[in-house]
């Protein structure tokens, strides 16, 4: 479990390590200290302090291994039990954040749960992989569309944090103003129905580990509304691999500023279709 807290202590830092690392360290210290007894006199300051610190680290490592192990099991159960948008919208915002983090963790990203976003806003996750730093905000809103104010604020945070991209994941949808603001920026908007598909693809191994998109490409993945047109009528399939395509905007070359359909499995597949 990787969750960053304000004023981190030693135990919080141990929680950043994989559970098996702290377990091995704790067991090693257990056997090492098993052959030693507490110094006979506390006046032997150096030996007493060393013994005390090692005892503290032993129990700290074993405790961190237990907490991290339970968190790993919970993430596994939460991820495998998520099957549709209804189950996602029924979650608490904390479980929603955990679900999103696990979806990216299984793509090969290192996921840091900041613990600072909460239900109101801010950075919920920091993803690192393939030379990128990506900040993520999770919006588990059941009744409202995510508006342009949220997207604009996260873009400002991205710049301040010197991140490469920002991803906003919602259980619902986005307003037209939010989508328009995200265009031509390193912002990815993922709505609820697309998140369901992403989770299914991760489960089946259809998503390539660490896609590593470029910060110069804006990917706006908004599922079309079924009451307007069917998904197949709006979103074309990739001519190379048959996967759904994503509407993107070229930012370089002679076609800069023009929109095109790019394969959702980019960069593993570089199929494109002109708009």
Q: Can you walk through the features of this model?
A:
This protein has 275 residues and is α/β, with parallel strands linked by helices. It has nine helices and nine strands. It has helices spanning 10-15, 19-34, 45-81, 85-89, 93-105, 148-161, 176-182, 192-204, 231-234, and strands at residues 110-113, 125-129, 132-139, 165-170, 187-190, 218-221, 245-249, 259-263, 272-274. Helix 2 runs antiparallel to helix 3, helix 3 crosses helix 5 (93-105) and helix 6 (148-161) runs parallel beside helix 7 (176-182). The longest helix is centred in the N-terminal third of the chain and has 37 residues, at 45-81. The two termini are 43 Å apart.
How many strand units?
A: 9
Number of helices: 9
Query: Which regions are unreliable across 5 or more consecutive residues at pLDDT < 50?
Result: 1-7, 208-219, 223-233
Beta content comes to: 15-25%
Using the alpha-carbon principal axes, give the shape.
Answer: elongated
CATH architectural name of the largest domain: 3-Layer(aba) Sandwich
């Amino acid at each position: 479990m990787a969750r960053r807290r304000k004023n981190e202590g030693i135990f919080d830092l141990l929680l950043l390590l994989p559970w098996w690392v702290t377990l091995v360290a704790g067991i090693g210290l257990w056997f090492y200290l098993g052959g030693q007894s507490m110094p006979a006199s506390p006046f032997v300051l150096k030996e007493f302090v060393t013994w005390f610190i090692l005892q503290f680290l032993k129990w700290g490592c074993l405790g961190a291994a237990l907490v991290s192990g339970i968190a790993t099991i919970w993430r596994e159960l939460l991820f495998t039990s998520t099957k549709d948008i209804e189950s996602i919208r029924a979650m608490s915002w904390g479980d929603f954040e955990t679900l999103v983090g696990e979806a990216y963790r299984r793509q090969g990203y290192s996921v840091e749960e900041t613990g600072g976003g909460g239900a109101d806003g801010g950075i919920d996750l920091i993803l690192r992989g393939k030379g990128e730093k990506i900040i993520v905000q999770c919006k588990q809103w059941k009744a409202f569309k995510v508006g342009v104010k949220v997207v604009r604020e996260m873009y400002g945070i991205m710049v301040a944090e010197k991140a490469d991209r920002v991803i906003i994941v919602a259980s619902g949808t986005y307003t037209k103003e939010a989508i328009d603001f995200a265009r031509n920026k390193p912002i990815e908007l993922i709505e609820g129905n697309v998140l369901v598909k992403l989770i299914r693809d991760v489960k089946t191994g259809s998503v390539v580990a660490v896609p590593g998109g470029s910060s110069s490409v804006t990917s706006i993945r908004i599922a079309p509304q079924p009451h307007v047109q069917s998904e197949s009528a709006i979103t074309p399939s990739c001519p190379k691999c048959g996967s759904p395509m994503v509407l993107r905007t070229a930012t370089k070359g002679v076609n800069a500023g023009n929109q095109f359909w790019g394969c959702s499995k980019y960069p593993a597949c570089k199929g494109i279709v002109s708009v």
